[in-house]
Amino acid sequence: MSMNKSRVEAFTDAVVAIIMTIMILEFKTPETDRWSGIIAEVPYLFAYIVSFIFIAVAWYNHHYMFSIAKRITKKYIGSITFGFLRCRCYQFQLRGRGVI
């Protein structure tokens, strides 16, 4: 059984957009309007940038795979779902290692 490529691709684009939105919502407003307040948030910004780069690379590779795929199977959908779980966990991995 194969699925419609355009529907799956649109769904995965929406998931990536949601992941990136959730990531930016985790930013905290600085306690003060001075540079010291902004500098205190640099680790969060670093984690966001690293996570964003990883997700952007995964998204690009995902679209490349869609361009060469002839059909989409349930197994491929499962691997996409697991890949999105990994993408969402990048920021948590950085937090767990003490980066943020």
From TrEMBL:
InterPro entries: TMEM175-like. Keywords: Ion channel, Ion transport, Membrane, Potassium, Potassium channel, Potassium transport, Transmembrane, Transmembrane helix, Transport. The chain crosses the membrane at residues 7-25, 45-66. It catalyses: K(+)(in) = K(+)(out). One of its GO terms (cellular component) is membrane. One of its GO terms (molecular function) is proton channel activity. The keyword Cell cycle does not apply. Belongs to the TMEM175 family. This is DUF1211 domain-containing protein. It comes from Pediococcus stilesii. The lineage of its organism: Bacteria, Bacillati, Bacillota, Bacilli, Lactobacillales.
